[in-house]
Potassium channel protein
Amino acid sequence: MWILQRFFKNVIKTNNFAIVLVSILVIAGSSLTMHLLEPDTFPTVFEGLWWTMTTVTTVGYGDVSPTTVEGKTFAMFLFIFGIGLIGVLIGKVVNLLSLYSKWKGEGKLSSKKTNHLVFVGWTDKTERAMAEILEDNENAQIVLIDSKKTNPCDLEVDYVQGDASEDAILLKANVLEAKSVTIFSDDMIEDASLSDGKTLLVASSVERLSKIHNRNIYTIVEIRKEKSIPNFSHANVDEFVISGETASRLLAKATMYHGSSHLFRQLTSRMHGDNIYEIAADPAWNTYRQAFHEILDKGATLLSSGKELDINRRLDEKIPNDAKLYIICDKHTYESKFKVV
C-alpha cells in the first residue's frame, strides 16, 4: 500500500502533458494486449478498447470479461494502475476547468472576441447600458474592463481585470478588433474635473494604441463637465456623453414642454415603443427627399444623416455614398422593411 501511495503521489505531481501521454499509451497498450491475450473474447482491438474504457472509468458493464489466467492477471494490473491513472487524469481535467472558471471570473484571461463592444469602468450606468444592448441584441459581444478583483457583472460578458490606461490590459480586451470602446466616468471620484481627467487618461491610451497599430478605434466617453471636451482634442474621441448636464437639460425640457420626457425616455430605450435605428442608404435614393418619402411609406421617419439634423431643410441635396441615416420606428418595422446595419 505504501508503494502505491508513493507511486500515485508522484503521478499527481507529474506535468499534465506527461499524464495525458501515459494515459493514452496505457489505454492503447491495454486494448492491444487484451486482443492478443484473448483473441476469442476480444476478436478486435476495438473490443479490447471497449473493455479497457469501461474498466478504467469504473463503469464495468460486465458484458465481456477475460476468461484466461493471463487475461485476468493483466486485468488485475489494470484495476490497480489503470483506474488510478485515469482517476488522476480526470482529476487534472476537473482542476483545469475549475482553474479556467476562476481565472475567467477574476478577469485574468484575454478575450478572443472580435467586432465586440468594450466597456471601461463598472457603474450602475454601465450595467444599464449593457442590459439595454443585450435586450436589443442578445448576441451582442461585450467585454468589460474594471479594476475589481472579480467580475461584478451578472450578464454574459467577458471580464478583464486591470487598469484600462495600460496597453497590456487594453490588448487583453482585444480593443484593436473592437467595434467600439465606451469609457464611463468613475462615480467613485467626487470631483468632476478629476473624474474627467481619469477618463482622458484612458481615452489617450486607446488613441495611442490605435496609432501604434494603425487601427481606427471608435471611442465614446462619458464626461461630467462640458468644459472638459477641449482637453480631449488630441485623443480623437468620436462621441461625448455629458452625464450630469444631460440630465439637467432633459429636466429643463420637461419643465418647459410637459410630457417631453416621455419622448426622450422612449427614444433612448429599447424596452418599449419606437426607437432610433441606423439604416444603410438605398443606392436608388438620390436625394434626401426621395429617401424621406420612401422611408415614410414604410412606416418610419427619417431623423438625420449622421449627426446632421437639418436634412429636412436640405431635401434636394444628394445623399453622400458614406451617409449614415438614422430613422425612428418600432423594432418590427426596422427588422422587416429595412436593411439592418
About this structure: The two ends are 68 Å apart (CA to CA). The first strand starts at residue 117 and ends at 120. The chain has a mean pLDDT of 84.
